[in-house]
Amino acid sequence: LLMREHILPSVVGLDQANFKHLDTAFSEGRQTARHWLYAFVAVAIVLGAILLETQFKLYASFRRLVNPAMAAGLAALVISILMFFGYAESIMSEIRSAKEDAFDSVHALSKAKAIAYSANAQESVYLLVHDKAEKAHQTAQFNDAAILLFSGSAEDVRQLPSDLKSLKNQGLLGDELANITFAGEEAMAKKALQGWFDYV
User: Fold this and answer.
1) Which tens digits make up the pLDDT trace of 171-184?
2) Distance (Å, rounded) from C-alpha 62 to C-alpha 55?
3) pLDDT value at position 64?
4) DSSP secondary-structure letter at 159?
5) Can you say whether the dihedral through the CA atoms of 10, 11, 16, 21 is positive or negative?
6) φ/ψ (deg, to 5) at 119
7) CA 153 to CA 100: how far, in whole Å?
């Protein structure tokens, strides 16, 4: 009773608070990084325009079509901008993948594992008690845990929709299946879900 009504709700609340803070910090950090990247590109474009304008002024004043040093500087600037922009986008994509594709899946599966253990404990209590009201209470708690794990209508992985992203917000295992990214992840996620179906 103490574990179910006091300790576990507190742990869930702590997990939600931490995850919300992480999610907010990640979103704000990514937005700030993108703003700085665009600011850098804007400044670089202004510098490029100044170099270009200087080249035109040199041509107008001295009738020199191309100043080798200025042209080389402009080319180096443009190449540097493109390389920096591409590298920054790549890093931001990797950070997004680490958080949204990897961490969020691990987080969902860790919660699913804890809830599955809790459901197993409720089943054990159900088998031990004799009072009908208490049996009904344990059954209700088991059903609540089952919905948290997967609330979809399928009872077999072969009945899942072809578009797994539609399983988002259909339980923790549904969230994992909607977030398939890495090689082999889909097969293992379906195996986990099928194991839960078999257990239920």
Assistant:
1) 999 999 999 989 99
2) 10
3) 66
4) G
5) positive
6) -65, -40
7) 26
**Closest Cα to residue 178, out of 158, 198, 152, 155?**
152
Phi, psi of 61 (to 5 degrees): -85, -40
What Cα–Cα distance (Å) separates residue 155 from each residue in 5, 108, 118? 30, 20, 21
Q: How far is CA 60 from CA 55, 67, 72, in A?
A: 9, 12, 19
The model's pLDDT over 36-87, given as tens digits with 9 standing for 90+, comes to 988 988 998 898 888 888 878 877 777 766 777 777 888 888 898 889 888 9
Contacts of 155 (CB under 8 A, 6+ apart): 197
Per 3-state DSSP, the chain is made up of helix, strand and coil in percentages (nearest 5) of 85, 0, 15
What tokens were used for 81? 């901008």
Contact between residue 97 and residue 105 where contact means Cβ atoms under 8 Å apart: no
CA distance 173 to 152: 10
For the whole model, what pTM was predicted? 0.72
CB 66 within 8 A of CB 110: no
> Is residue 169 within 8 Å of residue 175, measured between CB atoms?
yes
pLDDT score at 171 = 92
